[in-house]
């Protein structure tokens, strides 16, 4: 059975087009995509087709009903929580195969009970003060390709 080197978690994503872009990145690199409910859209053929996800059949993905179910499936010691509130930059970390990158909702990010679970596991992408945050799919791409860079492709 194929074990992905990288797991991308979208906690309660709201925008299907962002999830579609993240899914495309996951297909490109062989990462598994995890979606934690509730979702801001329906995961069915009609909605996926509207979001332009004609490659969805190639995606290794799973939807879980709640955060605790995700924790049952993925070891917490490999989690990294992406948040603008972190002080540690993503470039300061050596990612290991089996890494779990956790991203929050487009509108609110990760809730404090998740992002503050282990402050040493919080990471940020540096941005200038004029920018509130980066687009979710862009943030996923930045971190995903940093993992691949470290692993030699």
From TrEMBL:
Keywords from the UniProt entry: Cytoplasm, Methyltransferase, S-adenosyl-L-methionine, Transferase, tRNA processing
Enzyme class: transferase
Coiled coil: none
Residues covered by the tRNA/rRNA methyltransferase SpoU type domain: 6-145
Cell compartments where the protein resides: Cytoplasm
Reactions performed catalytically: cytidine(34) in tRNA + S-adenosyl-L-methionine = 2'-O-methylcytidine(34) in tRNA + S-adenosyl-L-homocysteine + H(+); 5-carboxymethylaminomethyluridine(34) in tRNA(Leu) + S-adenosyl-L-methionine = 5-carboxymethylaminomethyl-2'-O-methyluridine(34) in tRNA(Leu) + S-adenosyl-L-homocysteine + H(+)
Entries under Gene3D superfamilies matching the protein: 3.40.1280.10
GO biological process terms on file: wobble position ribose methylation
Binding site for S-adenosyl-L-methionine: 82, 104, 125, 133
GO molecular function annotations of the record: RNA binding; tRNA (5-carboxymethylaminomethyluridine(34)-2'-O)-methyltransferase activity; tRNA (cytidine(34)-2'-O)-methyltransferase activity
EC number: 2.1.1.207
GO cellular component: cytoplasm
PANTHER family to which the protein is assigned, alphabetical: TRNA (CYTIDINE(34)-2'-O)-METHYLTRANSFERASE (PTHR42971)
Entry function: Could methylate the ribose at the nucleotide 34 wobble position in tRNA.
Protein family (similarity comment): Belongs to the class IV-like SAM-binding methyltransferase superfamily. RNA methyltransferase TrmH family. TrmL subfamily.
The protein's name: Putative tRNA (cytidine(34)-2'-O)-methyltransferase
Organism per entry: Adhaeretor mobilis
């Amino acid at each position: 059975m194929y074990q992905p080197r990288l797991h991308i978690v979208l906690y309660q994503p709201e925008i299907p087009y962002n999830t579609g872009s993240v899914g495309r990145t996951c297909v490109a690199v062989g990462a598994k995509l995890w979606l934690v409910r509730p979702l801001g859209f329906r995961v069915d053929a009609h909605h996926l087709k509207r979001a332009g996800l004609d490659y969805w059949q190639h995606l290794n993905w799973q939807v879980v009903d709640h955060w605790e179910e995700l924790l049952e499936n993925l070891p917490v010691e490999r989690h990294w929580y992406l948040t603008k509130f972190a002080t540690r930059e993503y470039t300061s970390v050596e990612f290991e195969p089996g890494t779990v990158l956790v991203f929050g909702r487009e509108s609110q990010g990760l809730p404090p009970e998740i992002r503050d679970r282990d402050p040493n596991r919080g990471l940020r992408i540096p941005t200038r003060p004029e920018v509130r945050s980066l687009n979710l799919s862009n943030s996923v791409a930045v971190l995903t390709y940093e993992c691949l860079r470290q692993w030699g492709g």
